[in-house]
Amino acid sequence: MELEFSGEVWFWRGPSPWHFITVPERECDELEAASKFVTYGWGMIPVTAHIGRTGWKTSLYPKDGRYIVPIKTVVRKAEGVALGDVVTVRLVVGG
Q: Which of 30, 52, 71, 91 might form a disulfide with 19, Cβ 3.0–4.6 angstroms?
């Protein structure tokens, strides 16, 4: 399954600070349907993500009834992505 959507980059300060993009509801419905085939526990869904020309392997986290995409620092730097930017994300589920 492949998905593409746009979302705003936000920051979570927690004990391990990280940047994320929240997956829109419609795409979350599709991910929920596929999750039972690909999740490895705790609702995590393995994906290959792309922003611009940069790709990386990660897992989607379930949060508040939706999924969030963690954005690595190396990806943000390579693509010039900053907090609050709206970016397009491509996901390959199970990739």
A: 71
Helix (H) or strand (E) holding 26: helix 25-38
Strands 18-22 and 45-51: unpaired
Is 24 buried (19+), middle (13-18) or exposed (0-12) by CB count in 10 A?
Answer: middle
Rg of the chain (C-alpha set): 12
pLDDT at res. 35 = 86
Q: Per-residue pLDDT tens for 34-52?
A: 888 888 878 899 999 999 9
Domains of the chain, by residue range, sit at 2-88
- Considering the four listed CATH numbers 3.30.300.30, 2.40.30.100, 2.60.40.150, 3.40.50.720, the one that applies to the domain covering 2-88 is 2.40.30.100
Are 22 and 7 spatial neighbours (Cβ–Cβ below 8 Å)?
yes
Helix (H, G, I), strand (E, B) or coil at 95: coil
